[in-house]
């Protein structure tokens, strides 16, 4: 039997409260971005809805692009890599073979993601995570230095590909004109207001774009963050991070100094509509994500930070259920089989709606976890992963789920 290095020792079980709170925080940031795509087809066509062209609309779009776009997805991916190591250690404690267990988990995620795409929202991340997790699984024995070097190479290659595309490729060769994009967006928004068949068709129509984005940008950057999260878990980053105030301050200073100007430049250049802007965000977004982590961890460990933990931690503990629940809320609010608000809600109201829905999720999550160890989606995924029904603790359902239950 090979001996683990110090960086590969099992992570302490139970010391994941900060991770759960961070995961809940990441879900809020992801929803702020995703709800704009759920509410109309204009963002997906890389154009603004001309019905919302007031200065306040432009300001909200700018802030969402600068502070949220491409930042919280990275944080969520980092936490997925962190939880990967927790799952590895949980398998070891249970005496279960890790690789078959993780293969089943990836397959379960992919099945859930496929259903998510077809039934709820085409901007799914679960299928991407499921596929990229196979690469992480193949690399889970590599040393920290190799993992970190691989992450850096991935980011360098993604950035280089974007720079080459921006400098030498003519977007008009494969992208519709602005007027054509507006026309397509208007037609697709009307489709969102149709019946079940129309909505299914709309979801499936976006599959090609989802695959291209996953292969060229979202998948590689997710893998890079998976690897960094794996390193962080091996080194027990969150076991006492809240006590390292000087380190957290340095991360804040560097992260905000690089990440905020990068986010502003990304938004100013046009966000997702501009390849140069995307390249800027790829380079600078990890710094802003790190600054967000440091800031939240510091807030969680101040005397009055208990309320923030009580809000965020339950959401993060059943993150998979809440991620799917956000898409359910979007379908009910905006589609034709629900209230039918697609194309009728301003950016500012969407931002408020995202916060309100998240607050409801926080309250429901806290209520649910008083009597259940797992969220509904977590229960199904754990059932598929372990190939056995999750058992109750000796005290009923009151104990929190073990670390490997987190998504």
From TrEMBL:
<feature type="domain" description="DUF418">
    <location>
        <begin position="232"/>
        <end position="387"/>
    </location>
</feature>
<feature type="transmembrane region" description="Helical">
    <location>
        <begin position="210"/>
        <end position="232"/>
    </location>
</feature>
<feature type="transmembrane region" description="Helical">
    <location>
        <begin position="149"/>
        <end position="169"/>
    </location>
</feature>
<keyword id="KW-0472">Membrane</keyword>
<keyword id="KW-0812">Transmembrane</keyword>
<dbReference type="Pfam" id="PF04235">
    <property type="entry name" value="DUF418"/>
</dbReference>
<dbReference type="InterPro" id="IPR007349">
    <property type="entry name" value="DUF418"/>
</dbReference>
<feature type="transmembrane region" description="Helical">
    <location>
        <begin position="62"/>
        <end position="82"/>
    </location>
</feature>
<feature type="transmembrane region" description="Helical">
    <location>
        <begin position="276"/>
        <end position="300"/>
    </location>
</feature>
<feature type="transmembrane region" description="Helical">
    <location>
        <begin position="348"/>
        <end position="369"/>
    </location>
</feature>
<feature type="transmembrane region" description="Helical">
    <location>
        <begin position="253"/>
        <end position="270"/>
    </location>
</feature>
<feature type="transmembrane region" description="Helical">
    <location>
        <begin position="102"/>
        <end position="120"/>
    </location>
</feature>
<feature type="transmembrane region" description="Helical">
    <location>
        <begin position="126"/>
        <end position="142"/>
    </location>
</feature>
<keyword id="KW-1133">Transmembrane helix</keyword>
<dbReference type="InterPro" id="IPR052529">
    <property type="entry name" value="Bact_Transport_Assoc"/>
</dbReference>
<protein>
    <recommendedName>
        <fullName>DUF418 domain-containing protein</fullName>
    </recommendedName>
</protein>
<feature type="transmembrane region" description="Helical">
    <location>
        <begin position="320"/>
        <end position="342"/>
    </location>
</feature>
<feature type="transmembrane region" description="Helical">
    <location>
        <begin position="21"/>
        <end position="42"/>
    </location>
</feature>
């Amino acid at each position: 039997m090979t001996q683990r290095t110090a960086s590969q020792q099992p992570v302490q079980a139970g010391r994941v409260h900060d991770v759960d709170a961070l995961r809940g925080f990441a879900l809020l940031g992801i929803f702020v971005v995703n709800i704009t795509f759920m509410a109309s087809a204009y963002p997906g066509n890389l154009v603004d809805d001309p019905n919302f062209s007031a200065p306040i609309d432009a300001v909200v779009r700018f802030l969402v692009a600068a502070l949220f776009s491409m930042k919280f997805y990275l944080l969520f991916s980092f936490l997925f890599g962190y939880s990967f190591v927790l799952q590895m250690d949980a398998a070891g404690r249970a005496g279960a073979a890790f690789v078959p267990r993780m293969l089943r988990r990836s397959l379960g995620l992919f099945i859930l993601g496929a259903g998510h795409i077809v039934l709820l929202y085409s901007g799914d991340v679960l299928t991407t995570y499921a596929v990229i997790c196979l690469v992480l699984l193949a690399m889970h024995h590599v040393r920290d230095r190799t993992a970190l070097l691989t992450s850096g190479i991935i980011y360098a290659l993604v950035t280089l590909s974007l720079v080459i595309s921006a400098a030498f490729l003519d977007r008009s060769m494969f992208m519709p004109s602005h007027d054509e994009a507006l026309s397509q967006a208007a037609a697709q928004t009307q489709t969102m207001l149709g019946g079940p068949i129309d909505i299914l068709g709309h979801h499936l129509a976006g599959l090609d774009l989802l695959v291209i984005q996953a292969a060229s940008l979202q998948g590689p950057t997710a893998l890079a963050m998976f690897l960094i999260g794996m390193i962080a878990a091996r080194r027990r980053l969150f076991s006492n991070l809240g006590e390292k105030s000087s380190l957290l301050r340095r991360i804040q200073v560097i992260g905000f100094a690089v990440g905020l100007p990068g986010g502003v430049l990304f938004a100013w250049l046009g966000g997702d509509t501009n390849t140069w802007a995307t390249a800027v965000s790829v380079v600078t977004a990890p710094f802003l994500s790190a600054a967000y982590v440091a800031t939240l961890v510091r807030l969680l460990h101040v005397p009055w930070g208990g309320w923030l933990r009580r809000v965020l931690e339950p959401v993060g503990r059943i993150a998979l259920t809440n991620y799917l629940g956000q898409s359910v809320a979007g379908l009910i609010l905006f589609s034709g089989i629900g209230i039918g608000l697609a194309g009728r809600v301003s950016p500012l109201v969407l931002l408020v709606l995202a916060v309100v829905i998240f607050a409801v999720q926080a309250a429901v999550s806290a209520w649910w976890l008083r009597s259940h160890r797992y969220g509904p989606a977590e229960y199904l995924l754990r059932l598929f992963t372990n190939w056995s029904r999750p058992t109750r603790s000796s005290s009923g359902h009151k104990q929190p789920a073990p670390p490997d239950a987190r998504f």
